[in-house]
Amino acid sequence: MIPPWMKTAKCGLHGVRHPFLIGLEPIGKYGGAMKRIVLTGGSGLIGTALHDSLDSDGHHLIQLVRRTPQHPHEVAWDPGAVLSPDVLAGADAVVNLNGASIGRLPWTPRYRRTLRESRLHATRTLATAIRTLGTDAPSFISGSAVGYYGDRPGEDLTETSSAGDTFLAELCVEWEEGAHAAGENARVALLRTAPVLHPQGVLKPMIALTRLGLGGRLGPGTQVWPWISLDDEVRAIRHIIDSDLSGPVNLSAPTPATATQIGRALAARLRRPFLVPAPSWALRLGLSRDAADSLLLSDAHVEPRALLADGFEFQHPTASEAIAAAID
């Protein structure tokens, strides 16, 4: 059923009436092709920044929300229920960023279920609706994470590398399988996103400790952390929307950095000491083994080969540049 706020015209799949094709100019206000995009997870850090970026350039957005819609571009949905394909008809791309925050700690057994269900239910629901559209299916740009690779010290991890065996790696495998259910008519790109170096991202707890003078080595400190700036994350997603890239795409900066290098760069930016170590056993005790091993102690040198081969250029190729851009 089409929501009553939508302006309609008879066009598209089986003569369906849908919101995207009514009175839209084929050219955006800055001269580029205007995109019609459906977005889920638009209230999170990445989703909010992506929404604002696309909206500021004049693209047409429909945001799926789990609450009562408050704006004309919002449509209510239940990620665990059937979604009418009419809502997606006419879109160029569906960008799926839905999922509970992995930064909420500790990962209790109950919260691990929430992490899993919030991703799998939404992804499968969207994939089913997209598959129903057949040859009119939009591109499906679906979230995943570099946690797919698990703990792999000494390896150079690319999009062709195998999955790891951590909780987060196993979740990413299921998550990506759910996206592929969109069918052969849809271009499916999987956003294997690295932790975002931002005050509301992976830096949030580190900033609090560092400002208190409690910043220091996490575990051995030599583990390589994949990372990306928020600006480059948004730019990379937009690049993928506009490109022909499909399959897994690593959204991780090209310059590797260890946990200690990132911690020291943050401490230098905040003009605070970097002295107090947190041993691995303490991190596992305080955060749960799953969370500590997946987020803080895993060693994964993730290379963004697909993006670089497709001509993408990073604005913040080093961790110190990303931290300087994120923290005034």
How would you explain this protein's 3D organization?
With 328 residues, the protein is α/β, with parallel strands linked by helices. It has a domain of 225 residues: NAD(P)-binding Rossmann-like Domain (Rossmann fold). It has ten helices and eleven strands. The strands form three sheets. Strands 3-2-1-4-5-7-9 form a seven-stranded parallel beta sheet, with helices on both faces. β4, α2 and β5 form a beta-alpha-beta unit. The radius of gyration is 20 Å and the shape is globular. The N terminus is likely disordered. This is Cell division inhibitor. Belongs to the NAD(P)-dependent epimerase/dehydratase family. SDR39U1 subfamily.
Indicate the structural class.
alpha/beta
Which strands sit side by side, in order, in the main sheet?
Answer: 3-2-1-4-5-7-9
Measure the end-to-end span.
Answer: 47 Å
Q: Helix and strand string, N-terminal first?
A: EHEEEHEEHEHEHEEHHHEHH
The biggest beta sheet reads: 7 strands, parallel
Multimeric organization: single chain
The general outline is globular
- Report strand %: 5-15%
**Proportion of residues in helical segments:** 25-40%
Query: How many helices does DSSP assign?
Result: 10
The CATH topology of the domain at 17-197 and 227-255 and 301-315 is what? Answer: Rossmann fold
> Which CATH class of the domain at 17-197 and 227-255 and 301-315?
Alpha Beta
Radius of gyration, CA atoms, in whole angstroms: 20 Å
Ranges with pLDDT <50 over ≥5 residues? Answer: 1-31
The total count of strands amounts to: 11
CATH architecture of the domain at 17-197 and 227-255 and 301-315: 3-Layer(aba) Sandwich
The CATH fourth-level homologous superfamily of the domain at 17-197 and 227-255 and 301-315: NAD(P)-binding Rossmann-like Domain
- Mean pLDDT score: 90
Domain DUF1731: 278-325
Keywords: Cell cycle, Cell division
Organism: Microbacterium esteraromaticum
InterPro entries: DUF1731 (IPR013549), Epimerase_deHydtase (IPR001509), NAD(P)-bd_dom_sf (IPR036291), SDR39U1 (IPR010099)
